[in-house]
């Protein structure tokens, strides 16, 4: 069976092969919902690949690598979860050989799906170079020679093929100003097409980025620093903190670290991510991409021209004779057009003296110095901007073998210098001649032959020295005889006293002294006497320096609490690269040696960070800072304090037969770094969840007796050690039963001996009865008066029967009780004491002032008074109001407690009863002297004479219409309530007129007014003492007037017309009325007012025009409304005199508008639920106007009461107010006239509602 072409999966990189022509419904080929993610891990870690596979039937999944199958079960663990789509491959204990391409394949009967992922194992430590150690070591000179030959003869590297997909990704994140450069570099010529494609790709990229990112901003492309480090950074706002970030170069994933020790490293600060590429090499050029999971976020390019050139083969020291030529040669890692030659730090220009050559590949640079003289001796250097190489030119005076080195020696020395100068490859920029391999120390052997000079001139030549910066140094040489003045040179430059050195001469011994050697004083020194000289090298080691104040701080122990992070940052100064090694108790500390420890090294600091400290982190830490100039070490002590461990068990519990239980334990093994202050003992009664504090034991005691247990009950005890860090873990005992014994009886009620704001002193008597013979002490409790909660005063029982309670609040009232405690436990508490105030003795307040009665009622009396005068702080805190009946001698308070204000209303008194009243001020010192009224106060309201309350809305006359409701409220004031009488025309009001009186309001209410209700109404208020007051108002009930009589018209004056009418029958009544006259002419259609408020029965209209018809209307009016109008029967008209003329009208033929009926809009079908209204409409046209007849199922609906039809200007409608299922059917509208008929039909369906 032929296989079908590959199907496309929703995930990129997944290949699906269909094995059958047709797939049954409900089945499918395998596919990946989530494919494995590429990993880059260190050696020793475990790699886990996860894949989500779907398909029906469920596919089988197997894993394999390019090196073969994964049959080793201890190395490779393949698993899947039942009922789940997830399949897992776990590779244990990664090694370098596990770096490979792994493939996952899912197969069922309809097809197979395949995807691949890559695993990159990062080798650490010596394993990085293990293959290099296996290579045989060759001779150094041959290696250099062959290497130099290969550099000259090597072919140009093959041009790297660039994936255009990476170029498009680069364009998407590049600046617009760089579009032209990138397009020109990679051969993109369709600029507009490029912009269109970028716009499409940008939208797809944003949709994919939205799965993992909230925002991405501040993109900064690659830039190379002066130190030769390439950096690029961006800000990412990740949706999920666990999202993985990958770095790719030219489409291949690049592993990176998080410190400065790896070539590619990532530094993160908040949302800022910065990638660094160190130790730049030509092969580092390319396109770098940052991905979050599988979404491409940022692309940038490192151009080969931006990588600084490094020195592969440095300059070598050259020895030549005077007037000969010297050749310097240096090989760089990549072409550098800006490389410059310098002599004594001054640039050289090509001339006849100095000839500069560059090889065709731009890597080898050569300088030829013609016609050497002694003034040409000194340091020559080649600089590339970031790196460089320096070597000396030594000019020889003759060919004496004792002074000059042989050619072979010079070549060997140059080769050694070149080899040691390879440190420039790593950016050190150190002279090739200053190599640790060419050290000659005084006292350790002879000197190089070229430094000794011939015998008979120097008995002792200069010796190479190595000193630390800041130390003193001395160069010394001894001549065999006096050769004249001696001169000293440094790097070919003559020295003087201004150069910071001291010249000393002692006979034939010449010395050059340095008080404090500086780094700039390192170099080659020459002592010249006559034609003879002696040379030596001064090497100044610049070891790292730690500031003294930092070292002083490190002497003090660093104390932190467990769980807190610790960061130790040690700044230092060094001109050379530094390596930092942290150790704890002699064991090296690093990110791989201890979980969580982080070691960082910056340009001027090193830092140790422990994210979460524990007790095991405490100890002696040291850091060693090492460079080529030496090393320095700093130490510090870290003390981690924590809560103590639980005391050592078991916790022994011994019952002491009525005296409680005795507990024993041992101190904890680890006190957390702090001394134990005490132990806390707690107990828990069986059946309860709460732990109660039993007491505490001192630090030097590991026993405790708990006497507060109840006999016959079970308890569990636990003990905790307490330090300044808090309480530690608890040591718990087993459940213990306390044997019961007789308890002591209750002591007597405490007696208050004294009370003040500082304390209250109590005394009591001992209890009696069984269990009271051996009393250990007493427990005192207190409570505030009115409260049900008792609070312990003392924790330990007191043996005395007298105690002063000092924990009181001033001004509060307390009660106390005492409980006896015996060896068997506490007994029942005694009765409480009398309530007592915690306050200092004070004077009672004085008498109140200005006591008076301000109001009385039938059952109450309201009093007011002024505060008493204050003397010596005797301020009144409240008042007591007392009453005494006139026939009693006993004063009774009117309230509970005290009254805080200076007014009080005594309620619930007997009406008409007389009382004596007095008020007493009280405070903490007691009651003051009472103040009483001299007279009796009678319980009755204060009499108020009746009077009416009138305002602007009160009127003396009212007029209402017949049939309206009449409500007339009248407000009054009177105490006591007076007798209210309503009169009409001097007679008592009839029962049909309803009146009501309540709380100062009386009102007249007539539901339906009639003409008989008109009259003069009077309200009479009569008090109990016989006083009267009256209020009168007139009420008129009337109806609208009747219409006037017939209207007569006559012309009394030409051009005018006079209208006369019969008066209204109501004109003779007592309600005044008037008339309104309205006219209407043929020139003005509507009625217009001609006159208003006419009090006569006639009206003359002026300006009557001949030929116009005039109609008149008269309406009678009063305050209640208008009558019906009275109109003229015939219009008034004055004939107009006109001349006769003849008009000949044109003849025309009327058009024939006849048309048979036709429907402009026909009926439409309707589907309605039961109970709704149905309106079926259509539009019909025709002339003469057609008549429309409605039919249902061929039966006419004319006369059917359940429906009705309308016909408005040709729009015909049939309306059914409430449809039912029986109304369903075919409806027809038939339009007919004399010319024919038209029919329109539609159906109506009525659905029944579901219950």
Describe what this molecule looks like in 3D:
This protein is mainly beta. Strands 1, 2, 4, 6, 7, 10 and 11 form a 7-stranded mixed β-sheet that branches. Strands 65, 66, 68, 69, 70 and 71 form a 6-stranded antiparallel β-sheet that branches. Strands 83, 84, 86, 87, 88 and 89 form a 6-stranded antiparallel β-sheet that branches. Helix content is 7%, strand content 45%. It contains 8 helices and 98 strands.
Helix content: under 10%
CATH superfamily of the domain at 545-641: Immunoglobulins
The total count of strands amounts to 98
**CATH architecture classification of the domain at 545-641:** Sandwich
* Poorly predicted ranges: 125-140, 150-159, 399-456
Per CATH, the class of the domain at 545-641 reads Mainly Beta
User: Given the helix and strand composition, which structural class is it?
Assistant: mainly beta
From the alpha-carbon coordinates, what is the Rg to the nearest angstrom?
61 Å
Summarize the structure.
The chain is mainly β and 1251 residues long. It is built from eight helices and 98 strands.
Question: Layout of SSEs?
Answer:
Elements (H helix, E strand, L loop, with lengths): L5 E3 L6 E4 L9 E7 L4 E4 L4 E10 L3 E6 L2 E2 L6 E5 L5 E6 L8 E9 L2 E12 L7 H5 L5 H14 L10 H10 L5 H8 L4 H19 L3 E12 L5 E9 L6 E5 L2 E3 L9 E6 L2 E6 L8 E7 L2 E8 L8 E3 L4 E4 L4 E7 L7 E4 L2 E2 L6 E5 L5 E6 L8 E6 L4 E9 L10 H14 L28 H4 L5 E3 L4 E4 L4 E7 L6 E5 L2 E2 L7 E5 L2 E6 L8 E7 L2 E10 L3 E2 L1 H8 L2 E4 L4 E8 L5 E6 L2 E3 L8 E4 L3 E6 L8 E9 L2 E12 L6 E8 L5 E6 L11 E8 L6 E7 L4 E4 L7 E10 L2 E7 L3 E2 L13 E5 L4 E4 L13 E8 L6 E2 L9 E4 L7 E10 L2 E2 L9 E2 L11 E8 L4 E6 L11 E8 L6 E2 L9 E4 L7 E10 L2 E2 L3 E2 L4 E2 L5 E5 ...
Parallel strand pairs: 4-11, 21-28, 30-37, 39-46, 73-80, 91-98
Antiparallel strand pairs: 1-2, 2-11, 3-5, 5-9, 6-7, 6-10, 8-9, 10-11, 12-13, 13-17, 14-15, 14-18, 16-17, 18-19, 20-22, 22-26, 23-24, 23-27, 25-26, 27-28, 29-31, 31-35, 32-33, 32-36, 34-35, 36-37, 38-40, 40-44, 41-42, 41-45, 43-44, 45-46, 47-48, 48-51, 49-50, 49-52, 52-53, 52-54, 55-56, 56-59, ...
């Amino acid at each position: 069976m032929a296989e079908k072409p590959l199907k496309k999966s929703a995930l990129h990189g997944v290949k699906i092969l269909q094995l059958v022509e047709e797939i049954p419904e409900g089945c499918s080929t395998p596919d990946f919902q989530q494919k494995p993610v590429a990993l880059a891990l260190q050696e020793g870690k475990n790699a886990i690949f996860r894949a989500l596979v779907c398909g029906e039937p469920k596919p089988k999944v197997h894993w394999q690598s390019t090196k073969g199958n994964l049959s080793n079960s201890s190395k490779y663990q393949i698993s899947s979860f039942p009922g789940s789509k997830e399949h897992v491959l776990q590779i244990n204990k990664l090694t370098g050989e596990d770096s490979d391409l792994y493939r996952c394949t899912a197969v069922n009967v309809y097809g197979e799906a395949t995807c691949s992922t890559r695993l990159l194992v990062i080798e650490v430590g010596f394993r990085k170079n293990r293959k290099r150690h296996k290579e045989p070591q060759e001779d150094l000179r041959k290696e250099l020679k062959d290497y130099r030959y290969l550099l000259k003869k090597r072919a140009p590297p093959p041009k790297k093929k660039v994936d255009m997909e990476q170029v498009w990704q680069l364009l998407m994140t590049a600046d617009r100003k760089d579009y032209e450069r990138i397009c020109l570099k990679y051969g993109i010529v369709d600029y507009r097409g490029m912009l269109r494609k970028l716009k499409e790709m940008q939208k797809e990229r944003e949709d994919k980025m939205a799965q993992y990112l909230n925002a991405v901003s501040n993109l900064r492309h690659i830039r190379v620093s002066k130190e030769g480090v390439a950096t690029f950074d961006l800000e990412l706002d990740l949706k999920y903190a666990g999202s993985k970030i990958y770095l790719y170069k030219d489409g291949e994933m690049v592993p990176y670290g998080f410190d400065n020790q790896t070539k590619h490293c990532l530094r993160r600060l908040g949302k800022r991510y910065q990638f660094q590429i160190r130790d730049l090499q030509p092969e580092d050029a390319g396109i770098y991409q940052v991905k979050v999971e599988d979404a491409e976020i940022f692309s940038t390019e490192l151009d080969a021209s931006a990588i600084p050139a490094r020195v592969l083969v440095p300059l070598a020291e050259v020895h030549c004779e005077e007037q000969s030529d010297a050749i310097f040669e240096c090989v760089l890692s990549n072409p550098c057009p800006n490389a410059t030659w310098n002599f004594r730090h001054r640039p050289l220009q090509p001339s006849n003296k100095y000839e500069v050559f560059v090889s065709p590949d731009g890597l080898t640079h050569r300088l030829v110095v013609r016609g050497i003289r002694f003034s040409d001796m000194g340091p020559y250097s080649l600089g590339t901007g970031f790196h460089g190489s320096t070597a000396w030119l030594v000019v020889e005076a003759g060919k004496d073998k004792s002074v000059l080195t042989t050619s072979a020696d010079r070549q060997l020395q140059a080769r050694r210098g070149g080899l040691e100068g390879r440190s420039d490859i790593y950016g050190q920029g150190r002279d090739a001649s200053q190599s640790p391999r060419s050290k000659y120390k005084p006292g350790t052997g002879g000197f190089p032959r070229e430094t000794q000079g011939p015998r008979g001139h120097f008995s002792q030549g200069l010796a190479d020295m190595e000193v630390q910066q800041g130390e003193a140094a001395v160069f010394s040489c001894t001549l065999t005889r006096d050769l004249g003045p001696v001169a000293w040179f440094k790097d070919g430059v003559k020295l003087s006293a201004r150069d910071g050195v001291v010249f000393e001469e002692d006979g034939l011994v010449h010395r050059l002294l340095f008080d404090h050697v500086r780094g700039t004083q390192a170099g080659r020194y020459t002592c010249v006497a006559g034609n003879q000289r002696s040379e030596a090298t001064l090497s100044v080691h610049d070891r790292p320096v730690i500031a003294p104040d930092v070292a002083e701080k490190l002497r003090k122990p660093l104390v932190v609490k467990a769980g807190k992070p610790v960061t130790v940052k040690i700044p230092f100064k060094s001109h050379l690269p530094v390596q930092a090694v942290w150790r704890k108790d002699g064991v090296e500390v690093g990110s791989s040696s201890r979980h969580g420890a982080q070691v960082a090294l910056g340009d001027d600091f090193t830092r140790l960070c422990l994210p979460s400290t524990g007790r095991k982190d405490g100890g002696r830490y040291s850091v060693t800072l090492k460079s080529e100039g030496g090393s320095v070490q700093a130490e510090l002590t870290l003390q981690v304090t924590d809560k103590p461990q639980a005391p050592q068990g078991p916790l022994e519990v011994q019952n002491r037969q009525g005296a409680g239980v005795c507990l024993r334990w041992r101190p904890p093994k680890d006190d957390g770094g702090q001394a134990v202050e005490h132990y806390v003992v707690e107990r828990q009664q069986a059946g309860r969840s709460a732990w109660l504090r039993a007491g505490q034991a001192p630090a030097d005691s590991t026993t405790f007796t708990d006497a507060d247990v109840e006999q016959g009950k079970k308890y569990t005890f636990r003990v905790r050690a307490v330090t300044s860090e808090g309480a530690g873990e608890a040591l718990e005992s087993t459940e213990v039963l306390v044997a019961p014994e007789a308890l002591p009886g209750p002591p007597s009620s405490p007696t208050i001996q004294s009370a003040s704001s500082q304390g209250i002193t109590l005394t009591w008597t001992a209890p009696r009865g069984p269990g009271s013979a051996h009393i250990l002490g007493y427990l005192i409790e207190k409570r505030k008066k009115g409260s049900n909660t008792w609070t312990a005063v003392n924790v330990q029982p007191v043996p005395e029967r007298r105690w002063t309670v000092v924990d009181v609040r001033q001004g509060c009232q307390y009660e106390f009780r005492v409980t006896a405690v015996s060896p068997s436990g506490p007994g029942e508490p005694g009765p409480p004491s009398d309530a007592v105030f915690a306050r200092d003795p004070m004077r009672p307040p004085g008498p109140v002032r200005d006591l008076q009665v301000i109001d009385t009622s039938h059952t109450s009396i309201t009093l007011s008074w002024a505060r008493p005068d204050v003397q010596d702080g005797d301020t009144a805190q409240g008042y007591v109001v007392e009453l005494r009946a006139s026939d009693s001698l006993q004063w009774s308070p009117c309230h509970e407690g005290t009254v805080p204000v200076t007014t009080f209303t005594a309620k619930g008194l007997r009406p008409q009863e007389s009382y004596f009243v007095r008020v007493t001020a009280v405070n903490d010192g007691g009651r003051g002297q009472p103040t009483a009224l001299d007279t009796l106060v009678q319980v009755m309201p204060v009499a108020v004479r009746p009077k009416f309350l009138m305002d602007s809305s009160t009127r003396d006359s009212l007029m209402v219409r017949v049939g309206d409701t009449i409500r007339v409220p009248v407000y009054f004031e009177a105490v006591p309530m007076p007798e209210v009488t309503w009169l009409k025309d001097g007679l008592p009001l009839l029962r049909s007129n309803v009146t009501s009186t309540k709380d100062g309001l009386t009102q007249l209410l007539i539901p339906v007014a009639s003409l008989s209700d008109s009259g003069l109404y009077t309200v009479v208020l009569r008090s109990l003492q016989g006083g009267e007051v009256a209020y009168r108002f007139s009420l008129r009930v009337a109806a609208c007037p009747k219409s006037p009589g017939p209207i007569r018209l006559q012309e009394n004056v030409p051009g005018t017309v006079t209208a006369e009418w019969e008066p209204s029958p109501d004109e003779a009544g007592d309600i005044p009325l008037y008339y309104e006259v309205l006219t209407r002419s043929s020139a003005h259609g509507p009625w217009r007012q001609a006159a208003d408020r006419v009090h006569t029965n006639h009206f003359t209209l002026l300006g009557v025009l001949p030929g116009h018809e005039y109609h008149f209307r008269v309406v009678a009016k009063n305050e209640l409304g208008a009558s019906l109008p009275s109109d003229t029967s015939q219009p008034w008209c004055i004939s107009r005199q006109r001349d006769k003329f003849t008009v000949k009208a044109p003849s025309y033929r009327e058009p024939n508008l006849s048309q048979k009926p036709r429907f402009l809009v026909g009926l439409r079908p309707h589907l309605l639920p039961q109970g709704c209204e149905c309106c079926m409409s259509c539009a019909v046209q025709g002339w003469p106007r057609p008549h429309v007849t409605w039919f249902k199922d061929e039966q006419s609906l004319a006369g059917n009461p359940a429906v009705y039809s309308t016909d408005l200007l040709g729009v015909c409608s049939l309306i059914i107010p409430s449809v039912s299922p029986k109304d369903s059917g075919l409806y027809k509208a038939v339009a007919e006239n004399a010319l024919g008929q038209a029919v329109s039909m539609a159906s109506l369906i009525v659905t029944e509602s579901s219950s």
